[in-house]
Amino acid sequence: MITVTPDSFRLARTFTISRGSKTEARVLTVRITRGGVTGWGECVPYARYGETLETVTAQIESLPDDISREALQTALPPGAARNALDCALWDLAAKQSGRRVWDLLNRPAPAPAITAFTLSLDTPDAMRAQAAENAHRPVLKIKLGTPDDMPRLEAVRQGAPRPTILIDANEGWTPEVYADLAPHLIRLGVALVEQPLPAGQDDMLAEIARPLPVCADESCHDRASLAALRGKYDMVNIKLDKTGGLTEALALTDTAHAQGFGVMVGCMVGTSLAMAPATLLTGQAAHVDLDGPLLLAEDRPQPLRFSDRGIHAPDRELWG
């Protein structure tokens, strides 16, 4: 039996990117029960990709209760619906076998990994305060994506002089804005720029200098995306809600490396249940951005553990 439940989790503070703001994480929880054993997974339907809670629920409910993980890969396209089902089927297999998912995959247990902590888009003064509050963290990810981002970036560096900085423009810049900002990004110690230009309008990245690594997010969903990224991007951000689950995420990671792309593992704003499967990718990632639970005011029972060593593998009571 497959059941789908909409759930809402309050955020610790309003979270803003170039496309808008939110005060809660609205997710779908999927449970698959077979033989008295239940596996579960979570997805975050994303409006940017034409998804809503209702449309994703309909996709999930259209499938037979006994669908296999192998059949799922072609029954649904990459996206949130397939992600929740794929992760629930992995959890179910682990519980049925009494083994952990990484054992089923013949992989080592995920080691703790340092994750970025995301600062929401705001005024320069507010972002300076956010940065100062989190200056003890080793990596900060900054949401930008407006024509007036330079004061924000300067303010963040003033508030947090030491951390590595990653920038996510969420498709918000033009080629002219990016070319103007790029020299200053290097001066301020930025290590990575994520999706500076809109997906589908990013050919200019092949024609302008890339003085620091550029990472594809909205431009990369699954392995089929990679061909169009060559010459434009240096890295890809792998999110399970884009790949359609752990199965494709693992395959995308291997293929991206084989084709010369670096890998970042990222997330939507979700709970520990959504992050848990993604921890299996951290050992192959140059950058990890699985801070969703750190942005919440409330989380799942048995949440993921975060320490000064980073994000830890999930306990079996949570997932896998």
Can I get a quick summary?
This protein is an alpha/beta fold and 320 residues long.
The order of strands across the largest sheet is 4-5-6-7-8-9-10-11
Average per-residue pLDDT, rounded, comes to 95
Spans of at least 5 consecutive residues with low confidence? none
Which geometry do the CA atoms define? globular
- Rg, rounded, reads 19 Å
Task: Tell me the structural class.
Answer: alpha/beta
Q: In angstroms, what separates the terminal alpha carbons?
A: 19 Å
Biggest sheet details: 8 strands, parallel
Strand content: 15-25%
- Estimate percent helicity: 25-40%
Number of strands: 13
Number of helices: 10
SSE string, helices as H and strands as E: EEEHHHHEHEHEHEEEHHEHEEE
Fold and architecture overview:
With 320 residues, this protein is of the alpha/beta class. It is built from 10 helices and 13 strands. The chain has an 8-stranded parallel beta sheet with strand order 4-5-6-7-8-9-10-11. Strands 1-2-3 form a 3-stranded antiparallel beta sheet. The chain has a two-stranded antiparallel sheet with strand order 12-13. The two termini are 19 Å apart.
Identify the notable features of this structure and list them briefly.
320 residues, eight-stranded parallel beta sheet, three-stranded antiparallel beta sheet, alpha/beta
Topology:
Elements: E1 2-17, E2 20-34, E3 37-43, H1 53-61, H2 69-75, H3 80-97, H4 101-104, E4 117-119, H5 124-133, E5 139-143, H6 150-159, E6 164-168, H7 175-187, E7 190-194, E8 214-216, E9 235-238, H8 240-243, H9 246-258, E10 262-265, H10 272-275, E11 287-288, E12 306-307, E13 310-311
Parallel strand pairs: 4-5, 5-6, 6-7, 7-8, 8-9, 9-10, 10-11
Antiparallel strand pairs: 1-2, 2-3, 12-13
